[in-house]
Every structure is written in structure tokens, then in C-alpha cells.
Amino acid sequence: MCGRYAITTAPEAMRQLFGYLEQPNFPSRYNIAPTQPVPIVRLIQGKRQFALARWGLIPYWVKDPRNFAQLHVARSESVNDKPAFRNAMKRRRCLLPADGFYEWSEHGPKRPFFVRPVAAEPIAFAGLWETWMGPNGEEVESVAIITTPANRLLRTIAERMPAILPPSAFEMWLDCASVDAETAAAFLLPAPEELLEAYEVSTAVNRAANDGPELLMPMAASVAQEPTATPAKRSRKPKTDDRQTSLF
Fold this sequence. Notes:
The chain has a domain at 4-100 and 119-193: SOS response associated peptidase-like (hypothetical protein yedk fold), CATH 3.90.1680. By secondary structure, it is mostly beta strands. Strands 3, 4, 5, 6, 9, 10, 11 and 12 form an 8-stranded mixed beta sheet that branches. A 5-stranded antiparallel beta sheet has the order 2-1-7-8-13, with no helix packed on it. 10% of the residues lie in helices and 31% in strands.
């Protein structure tokens, strides 16, 4: 389903891959969680733009976000039908840069796994963004990650995974003016099995305040493709990172 993910690629390398003009200097983050600001790439007046948006989409028609369960994921099968997503699918599609994501085993004990590209290169999640306007003129930009059914590799861990777009699809996905929502939805497919690898990591990732490279270290006895029912031993939790309340 993608409830946490990581960004570790250097800012300039990320800028070159996604082709935006801004030069943000953001640090590596190893445990990005819903409600935090996250980087997105969108098309504004024909140019790719880097921006920050709150992870947890607030539809424009919501009267009071405090009484609304913010949507951090959107199912690919219903993005063109659900009122919360269909307008954004038509007009406000975006990319979310990432280097990997976490999934928790849905079979037996709940154990975390880190999923990353075999090629150790950044990936892009398909996303939708919205701008919510408050009664006093306040604005909140928010985003949801689109998910698909899990591919064969990840199906042994969880039922769903983020929709990962190849670089060849970036332009059409972002171009809401020329590419309609139905056409764009054709890109929302489970990623090829050979693109990714998965391995078990420490349960320290369960706590959103933990944020450090040690979270990506594999558990010695983990075999992602064949999860067992044996609970993993708890490793010592790293020190709390006070930066976790803000991605940047």
C-alpha cells in the first residue's frame, strides 16, 4: 500500500532525472510518513516544477480538513470515478521522486520490508495533487500516491504497491492539458518483477520519528520472496531524529 518511503539520491542527480528548473537542497530522508511535506514534480505552464506538498490529499470541496480523513493513497482502479480524485486525475497529476518504499507483511506477523530498484536508481510514483482553499484565504497543497495491485514479487508481502512510472511515461503523465485521464490511467500498472528487490528490515521503521540510514539495513535472516511466520528479533532503535516533523 505504501505507508512510508525513502529519498536518498543527491538533489542534483534527482533534478537531472526529473528535469525541473528549481535547485532544492533537501537532505536524505529514510522514513517519510503521511502528513509530512514531500517533494513532487508537476507541469506548470508547460515546464516541470519542483514543489512541496503535504502527503495526505485534501479535496478542494472539503469544508474543514480537521474533520476529514486525509487520503495518502488512491487506488488506480477508481481514480477516474471517486469524487476525491477524479478532478485531480484530469488536471493535477504529478510524480513523487523516491528511492524505495516500505511494505508490511500481511501474512503472519506484521514485519517491515524495504522495496527498492535492483539498479539502485531513483523511481517515480504516480501521484495526484490538490490545492485546498480555506475560508480565510489559507492554502494547503496536498498529494496522494496512486497504488496498484501488487506484482508477483510483492504479493508474498502485501496486496498493493505504489504505481511506479518509467521515465518514458513522465511527459504524458504530467501533461494534463493534452493527455486525458483515461489515457493516463493506462500507465497505472504493477511494476515489472525484475525492476525491484525486497528484503526485511528492522521494526524500528514502525516509529515515524526514527529516520536514519540504519533503517535500510537488511535483517540478516530475511528472505523477502518467502516470508516465514517467525517474528524477527527486535534491533536497537536508532536515536530520534528531531527533523522528522519536516521533510526539509
